[in-house]
Design a protein that fits this description.
single chain; 100 residues; alpha+beta; Hypothetical Cytosolic Protein, Chain: A; two-stranded antiparallel ribbon; globular
C-alpha cells in the first residue's frame, strides 16, 4: 500500500521544514475591493488553527522563540507585504502560549 505524502511547510522563524500539523498558520485575509478596484478594507491578520481559512498564509512553530525571531527579522511583513502592528504580535504570542 502506498504511503500518503506528508505536507511539509517552512517555519518563518527558524527556517526549518516541518510537518504542517506541527506548525501554526498565520493568515492574511484578502483585501476587499469595490467594483472600481479601489481598496475598501485591508485583510485582517489572524491565527488559523484549522488551516482552512482563505488568504495568504505563513507558518511558524508553536514556540514563542520562533515568533520572536520572525518579529525581529520582520518576516511576517515580508510574507504579507504590509506593515504589521505590535498588537498583532502580542495577540499571536498569547494564542501560541495558550496552545502549549
Amino acid at each position: 500500500m502506498k504511503q500518503k505524502k506528508i505536507p511539509m511547510r517552512k517555519c518563518i522563524g527558524c527556517g526549518e521544514m516541518k510537518e504542517k500539523k506541527q506548525l501554526v498558520r498565520v493568515v492574511k485575509a484578502p483585501d476587499v475591493l469595490d467594483e472600481n478596484g479601489e481598496l475598501l478594507k485591508k485583510g485582517d491578520i489572524s491565527v488559523d488553527l484549522g488551516g482552512k481559512s482563505s488568504g495568504r498564509g505563513a507558518y511558524v512553530c508553536r514556540d514563542t522563540e520562533c515568533l520572536a525571531k520572525a518579529k525581529k527579522a520582520r518576516r511576517f511583513e515580508k510574507a504579507f507585504s504590509c506593515r504589521i502592528p505590535d498588537e498583532i504580535y502580542d495577540r499571536l504570542a498569547e494564542e501560541l502560549s495558550e496552545q502549549v
